[in-house]
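Hello everyone,

My group is preparing for a crystallization screen and wants a predicted model to guide construct design. The compound we'll soak is zinc ion. Before spending weeks at the bench, it would help to have a computed complex in hand. I've included the protein sequence and the ligand's SMILES below. Output in structure-token form would be ideal because that's what our pipeline reads.
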Amino acid sequence: MANQVTTIRGGLAISPTAEASTIGNLDIRFSDDGWITEVGADLPAQEGETVIDARAMLVIPGLVDSHRHPWQSLMRCVSTDQTVVEYRSLARGRLAARYRPEDVYHAVLLADLEALNGGVTTISDLAHIMNSPQHADAAIQAHVDSGLRVLFCHGEPNDLEVDSWYHNSSRRHPDDVRRLRDTVLHDDTARVTLGMKVRPPFLVTPEVLRYDFELARELGLHVAMDGGLGGGCWTGARWGDNGLRPIDDINDIGQLGPHLTLVHCNNLTDSDFKLIAGTGTHVSISPDHEMLCGHGLPATIRMRHQNLQPALSTDSLVAVTGDMFAAMRTLLTATRGGISDLAYRSHEAVWSWDITSEDVFRSATLLSAAACGLGDKVGSLEPGKRADIVLLKADPLNLTLLNNPLATVVTSAHPGNVDTVVINGTVVKSGGELVFPRVDSVIEAAERSRAHIFEGTDLATIHKPHVDEWAMFA
Ligand SMILES: [Zn+2]
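Reply:
Good plan to model first. Here are the tokens for the complex, ready for your pipeline.
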């Protein structure tokens, strides 16, 4: 029997390419097994097609968050006014060790539904809560149940109070990733696929770094890693000044390349970015998290000197929003602010911007898809890609008139404007409502898990870090 098709008709479609975005009144047709099959103006009707009426709608590819930690949703905003050192002490130290597998499930499901609701159709889950195989299974099950597309980057445990595992530089990556590769996440064409979150050179011995990368390569996995955490949140020292040269360390073992996504990177040097650019390594910037939590300004300006464009991400609900529209806005404004600040200091004028709303839209779609190892599958509205599509109402007061549709999406849209979300050809949000059948019970389960996590913790006294733990970075 021929595949059934659905056609999104009458919308104003915005789709990025490597060069310029396509903007126009285009219909988009996808098959019920989840592929975009046709894109064009006024597609002829096909017998039996289902029609999604997109008149007065903007149609964009699903947004892609190339670095987030959904297990942390239970701790939403407890670290907003903390430094990264304080966050590590509380969230990654004291509270993470209390997570049971069922708490991971409830947290991840809640975070995934928040993502879907906000027009995010793919995330890279940097899952550093792998306290047991059951914790991994719970996170994966939540991703399967939510309907979100996920690169599940299996990470380190958070099983000891004060986050000792993270500091233990001689512990190799947990072997459980082999079990996942052999069983539940063996299929790289599935909606939920396996990657690895590997600890960076400044936290592990050279032997462990080599072992972890070789394990990822043996299993054929995309790798995510902290590239360079900002000065303000650690010691104030730039890489190189403190004897740490993480990008050189990775390059020395031949592991820079398109299979690797480095997150943050605020503290990398110009020569680091040169190496990154020359090897096709991805960089994911989390502008809200980086500026709020003390990493410093995003590295966008120095990256652009090397012709490097970043992928985009939100990082952690512990401190900031998971809203990717907000992340686009922040990346644009922070970069422009940095450019003009540099110009003022040099008594120069800025005559043109070398970062635009279109660049930022590309970061949130195509470039983030590539940073999840999914550049050939999602991130644009093209035949042959998976049908991950978002419809935004175009007529609310905060968007209407559309003089510049792309800039309007980047500067002014928010999750409340998301009308319809399609992932893998399945409608997961329609008419502004999630299709998921029991959102209330997801929230209630998350509340119960939160009570367990916080039991015995006085939120009023949590801001005291275990400063001694950080002596290794001095
Ligand atoms: Zn992170």
